[in-house]
User: Fold these one by one.
Assistant:
Number 1:
Amino acid sequence: MNLQEEIKNLVESLNQWAYEYYTLDKPSVLDFEYDQAYTRLVKLESENPSLIREDSPTQRTGDVILSGFEKFQHPFNLYSLADVFSREGLSEWESRVCKAIPNPEYICELKIDGLSLSLYYENGQLVNAATRGDGSIGENITENVKRISDVPQTLKEKISIVVRGEAYLPKKAFDKLNDERELQGLSAFANPRNAAAGTLRQLDTSVVRKRGLATFFYQVAGSSPKDTQEEVLEYFEELGLVVNKERHFAKNMDEIWSFIEQATKRRESLPYDIDGVVIKVNSLAEQDELGFTVKYPRWAIAYKFPPDLAETEILSVEWTV
Ligand code: NAD
């Protein structure tokens, strides 16, 4: 097989898997397999830029917009995160950051395995909520998000702000949902991420309230009223938005890696699914300096956990909405 054919095959497979994952909420391959093929494609494309295809998944941000929902044009592009799968990969990213920024400081956060959301507050009131979609256009899911019990309809300050976060289904709520489905003769949801995505894209809003979705918020989209990521998270708490307490300040690779090791050990005992750790440059001015690629911030990276047995079982479970 020549290079062009290999690239074509990778693009076609990745696009089919993305359709199954984002549109059908029914993956047919492990995230690990998707990530490996994606990494191979990135390598081939960077060595042969003239062979980059327009339909390559490297040229767009993830999700596909479902029909049935109004489209929502985000005022800011909502980026995804670049992935690494080893300490070596992480160290390469850290070295790149250190070349641009003297003595950077980092915040390490858990990577919540749910559905990416952005919420729009005007004078403290929740006015819109949307999925990330392709980063530029998402789905307007305001009525569904209003039915997530931990999402404040009114912030504790009358400010106008756009916040990004993740909606997820806690493990207990996921087990309960699947038990109920079994009793009703319905097939099980594959995993909490698919169940959360399927729930938020329900046209019947009453279903959302019943299923017990929850949220964590982690970023201001657009200009931020604070100077560091740490301050943003503290401010969110003051506003009444839920933030994840499991975060860690780090000054170097050893400190980052020690948080990743702890997170890996604690992963199973957490009440929600995580698929990695996100490492972010703490200073927002330094984040601005590092900027973005077409798809990712340069100031953050996702370290993804290796696949586990539980994940392998996902694909053997039959799925319906
Ligand atoms: P991603 O899920 O790998 O990472 C980006 C997302 O992480 C952000 O958009 C945000 O929503 C989320 N996130 C969670 N916690 C966060 C935190 N603390 N800080 C910042 N962001 C946080 O990227 P993606 O573009 O949403 O999806 C791509 C991934 O989806 C692939 O790497 C693959 O694992 C999976 N996928 C799998 C298949 C399959 O068939 N199995 C197909 C397509 C995609």
Note: Confidence is low (pLDDT under 50) at residues 314-321.
Number 2:
Amino acid sequence: AKPLLRSDYQPLDFKIVNTDLDFYFDTEGDFRATVKSTLDFERQNPQASSFSLDGQDLELLSLKVNGQDWTDYELELLPGEGKFQTLHIDVSKLENLDKFTVQIENTLEVANNKLLSGIYKAGEHICSQCESKSFRLITYYFDRPDNLSLFTVKITANKEKYPYLLSNGNPVEKGEAANGYHYAVWHDPFPKPCYLFALVAGDFDVISDEFTTKSGRKVDLQIFGEIGKAEQLRFAMSSLKRSMKWDEERFGLEYDLDLFMIVAVSFFNMGAMENKGLNIFNESALVGDKDTATDARLKRIDKVVGHEYFHNWTGDRITCRDWFQLTLKEGLTVFRDQEFTSDTFDRTIERIESVKVMQNFQFDEDRGPTSHPIRPEKVVSQDNFYTVTVYDKGSEVIRMIHTLLGEENFQKGMRLYVERHDGQAVTCDDFVAAMADASGVNLDKFKLWYSQSGTPHVTVEKKFDSQNQILSVHFSQITHPTNDQAEKQALVIPLKTVFLNREGEQVTGLKTLDGELVPELIVLENDSLSLEIATPCDLAVVTNLDFSAPVILHQEYDLQERAFIAEHVPNEYARYQAVQDLNYEIYKAYLSGVQVYAAQALGLYLGVYRSLLEKALDNPALYAHLLSFSSPSVIAARFEKDLDPLALENIYQQVQIALNRAHGHRAIELLDKLPATGAYEFNVTQAGLRDLRKTLLTLATVNGEHADKVVELYTNADNFTDRINVLGVNLTNKLGLDELEQEFLTRYHDETLVLDAYQSLKAQLAPDLEAIKQQFTLHTFDAHNPNRVRSILQPLARLNFAVMYAQDGSGIKFIAQQALQADKFNPQLSSFLVALLLNFFKLSARYQQQILAELKELSAQPLSNNMQEKVDKALE
Ligand code: B3K
Ligand code: ZN
């Protein structure tokens, strides 16, 4: 397919201002549904006399304009997969072209729609997913985000099978229809683009609650889930209420309808969808309680519920003009969900988790074949741009604006943005303009972050002149060419920086030689920046604190200095980063092949590790991170080239053994000292203790000893986190506690999401490909369900280096074949799977050749646009 360019944007000649949809689901067998749409048009361009509507997989039954049968149309079938259609309608014969009504009747695929887009069956339920370009699978329309319309929706279906009939906005009417059918009518009073349309039909358990907004609007809250699992929706309800409150308090943004609904479905390509008033969620991001979800998944539920709710303003009330602007709503809403999680739980931990996504995933995307700016220039399949770059780097860009402006000015900017653009479809430029205008801070140069791809490398060099008592610090930046863009310029890079003395204390009030105060936020705006600081003694420079800019930092430290910072820096985020850096150095020392150096590095690390163990009780959640030696997959993310995954795996195992020898007994001592968690509660302290307990148990049992402690934790567990942690320790350290695994499988036989977590663990630790294939035989497995497929294949590719990168190339081939298979029915799934191979560019020659050979074979097959775009970029 031909790529679309950002620069090609053209405003609409006509707009649809009212959309009336009347659905009839004749739900016997392999049904297609029928929809009658009544669309009120208004002309925008006085010269225009025709327009084109998008469609896909539709059968047109009739077309009328102003109530008359209309023959001035042409239905064009576009070449390629997926039966893309364009319906050209000529209205030049009308007397009044400024306002007219078009009525269309068409059928649409439902029961055989395996794309999980448009309207499809998710198990027994019927549901919709329209973002970004799937409304065209429902009816002919301007399937683009800048057409804002009011929607009225009537749904008719079998009453017994589909007692709940839901759509956006407010319920207007319901009643009985012939043959045991019934209907419901919904009206959404807010104009919206069609990608926010939603429809759900089915039988559910519902939990209800209410929330009163700060201006006194009483809002009914309803969450719909699988029959028999209502209890597993309670946590999400508490998240929703807290999200609503938080958005009022922190952003002053209030909910605007009398009803807010969330529905959990079992087949879904993404996490969730922010349809106006009717969010639809992948059940994995909504359903769970202490007995079926880990602390980490509950935290994710909290975050995603927040994220989708926050879209009500940043996405729904103010939407994107075109899909190139996706980060306008996604970067901003990720920033908002990160702030929500920080304010609710622990800011440092949340920051560390967001930074991990950047360092472990986004940096690779930025240097790989699919590199793109947060606002892309060129797109074949929009589905391929729901990326960590658009979302997470997008959020980092918003965070830098927040850092440069400060909270108060940032909120002023938000208020101006809402005041100017409520009810509009706008661009990233509009957002930045509101921020700049409200704060008076010039962001012209900063805006390069929207159009430049690639991760800047920032180098910090320092020199201390003891004679003249001058510390010179030199910052410089460079962004290397990326696959999509050869020329790079200097970016505006805000660097939070502190200086430490020899005792590890922060030195404040430092001045440059001209007497200027050295600010805590150093903004690098050009290729380089030099500071001459007056100080009687040498200082350590700790910069990019809190990851104030999404850059890769280079600083010449020797191992001792790194160890010193890891132990002494008075800032927990900086400590985390220093420990990460130290872990990386250990790997590098081993990889150097110089044994003395490796031994020295290890010795130093063991020393730091000991002091970390001593401090672990101060902040269990954080120290659980600090005490986990970086996994091979995390280290792999730091490589730019010549990566040998199997070598990393090998080093990891050696260091685990050394850690166990040196500190296994200390881990046991500390385990015995850990305060009892008490009855399960979901909070930072308890979750931190559970995490730390797992880290310590893993360390203590590396050589197979102390299995009794593992059994004890399982036996006493009153929650799922401890149970799955025990299973993890058992499998990691091969403790052979098969009876625990059996107990687990019996206990959770009917909990599909729990078994996903189990399968992930098995896939991560499988000894060979046979053991992976074994996972496909579990009773819950279904190759058409993305949750099932991803929970096996993602950990295989990302975490199980031994099987994925097996000498004979079988792991790589397996992923390629799975992708090809999925491509036959779900291009979003296959595109996700093929992306697991796109790290080839950084692997050493053997792996690289194996992957490229597989990709070439794939490219010889007929592929979906989604997959083709990625394969083409890889082979470019
Ligand atoms: N906006 C949706 C993503 C839909 C993706 C469709 N391919 C989820 C979110 O970011 O909130
Ligand atoms: Zn979003």
Note: The chain is about 40% helix and 20% strand.
Number 3:
Amino acid sequence: AAAQETNKTYIIGTDVTFAPFEYKDVDGEYKGIDVDLLDAIAKDQGFNYELRPLGFSAALQALESNQIDGMIAGMSITPERQESFDFSDPYFESGVVMAVSETNDGITSYEDLEGKTVAVKVGTTGAAFAESIQEEFGFELNTFEDSANMYEDVLTGNSDAAFEDYPVMAYAIQSGLGLKLTMDPEPGDNYGFAVNKGQNAELLEMFNNGLINIRANGTYDEIMDTYLGDTS
Ligand code: GLN
């Protein structure tokens, strides 16, 4: 047979609880938009991968230290991150939004956060945004490793608000989580697949090529429809 590349299996990190992008289903399987996009792109491009739900900040660290080859985790493409990572073309539009308990009518703007406590997830753009306005509006921060515990802290009343990605927060609220949104999301956020800077260029190229193909053949829309239905 002709010389063939070793059949490399790429290790891809993801978040633990970030529905509808990645979440553990009742059968213990990981499901979601990111999971299905990666799978469809891998099939289209003919590469093998193994998905590792490490948590968001743990996956960032694993990628930066080359313990994993890539990351798909509803990860926002930001100028700061572009110094450490190479991103694919954007595949989903997002934005940070503030959520409060559905029984809380006292917080309808950032001004109302004075003297309050805000829950954030470590290493996220939501945490970075909260930090960027913390001094101006005078609130405390509670930091969590994952989104489920961050929401729980608001539901129990320990934190007054949480900063989370709009599509994820809206999906959770639609699924019955007792939180609500009182403001529009911050604009200008897009998700991308990431590799460590200067590493795995071939994987990044395959992701981009596969993304073009699954957009063209309808698979991308099918995946969005599966998880977002009429809201997409
Ligand atoms: N989009 C946000 C970020 O990149 C949150 C991602 C996540 O929590 N999985 O920081």
Note: The chain has a mean pLDDT of 96.
Number 4:
Amino acid sequence: MGKTIIISNRLPVQLQISNGAITAIPSVGGLATGMKSVHSGGDSLWIGWSGLTEEDISPELEPKIDVALAEHGSSKVKLTEEEVDGFYYGFSNRTIWPLFHYFLEYSEFQLDYWNTYKKVNQKFADAILENAEDGDTIWVHDYQLMLVPQMVRKERPNVSIGFFLHIPFPSFEIFRTLPWREELLKGVLGSDLIGFHTYDYERHFLSSVRRLLGLEVSFNDISMGDRLIKVDSFPMGIDYNKFSDAAKIHYNKAESEQSELQQRLNTHKKTDPEAKFFLSIDRLDYSKGIAKRLYAFEYFLNKYPQYKEKVRLIILAVPSRSNVPQYQLLKREIDELVGRINGEFSTVSWTPIWYFYRSMPFENLIDLYTSSDIAWLTPLRDGMNLVAKEYIATRTDKTGVLILSEMAGSANEMNESLLINPNNFEQTADALHEAINMPVEEQKARNSILQKRLARYNVEKWANDFMTSLKSQNEREAANVSR
Ligand code: ADP
Ligand code: G6P
């Protein structure tokens, strides 16, 4: 049996150099955190970008970098600063990301970004070609590498290629605005199996394939010459046990073993057992709706003034893509909103919003999940949203309420949460009110169902389902060709 190669822009860790020493920090984002669990259990090779540019890497450092990555079963694709600008900050995050999240007005159509995207996709494809042999399985991930499947297929027709998109695939009306729409579709169609988080994304993709390329689509099969390509949805799960086990450890910690954050949160709980913590965790990204959430919080405090001094919103925003102007503007907007709302509502003994702009170690993430009565996750558009699933997994006593946006892919599997439209402040404020007053028995009933589902459809099952489907697709194709 051949080997498996995972390829994505991000690796499980990102490298940083300080004072000549290399440090590896865990990558954030659903792709890296999810795939890390799959990768650590097997003997696959993971190829991607280390986070450093060629200009950062001196000849003396290079072997050390290779060793640091090898410890994580990874190998690097080298990118120059100019390539990172055009490919990562440019076409990936200033063209595709906004467009696929329905922020059409943010999407920039620049030929030089496109050219760099093509060039860098070829670099990733070349890295695969150096390592792959006939019979191997290649799993390509996400919007940064949409051209890679076809680039590999052209040179190595006898490898098996799967592609998974971790973000939404937009409706045809949005996708058609992209000048390079046919090229992107043809790139992805180099795969044998194409996976999405939800059936809607799958349907949008098939509609674009039919209308833009005129290919025959029957149910979820695409015919392209003598090839048969399968498209399907595989909602990504989490490493459920990792989160629930960590939560159990958290609850049993003696005070002296607790983190400062846990101690601080506990002290607040003890001082006022009626007080409620609302939790908001995301990368600082406009698609996550953090600014809208702040406006909705202000609306809630005005509509239900009885909760002043009783509720606290904890915002953890992880720095992300800070070279892109829209992210810089958003950071400023959020800083100002937090300042304004705290300025308007704070009292001597109460600050309504605690705002952290940083990445946190896993233990602190668990502290926040386990200490929060309500998780308030309301992206304007989100491929999946794993944070929602992680929150539920840590609620080992089954209490807690999840308020989730209908626009998150995870909403399809989390009907027992309070689903809201993040643009509707009235509905959001009422959902917060309902969550605060939800009887414990009802919380437990809802969370029991959610937990069972999440424990069953975990990330391992997701990866296995994808790989099994890819294998059976290869068998179908082989039978199709020999007919
Ligand atoms: P996205 O992939 O768009 O960032 P997801 O909610 O799907 O959104 O995934 C976010 C992932 O990043 C989760 O697995 C979460 O645990 C992790 N994460 C979120 N915030 C932090 C943080 N402050 N520090 C470390 N990891 C984080
Ligand atoms: C989303 C994307 C991933 C990406 C992650 C973090 O989850 O689907 O591909 O890795 O965000 O973003 P970054 O730009 O830091 O890789």
Note: The CA atoms of residues 399 and 441 lie 8 Å apart.
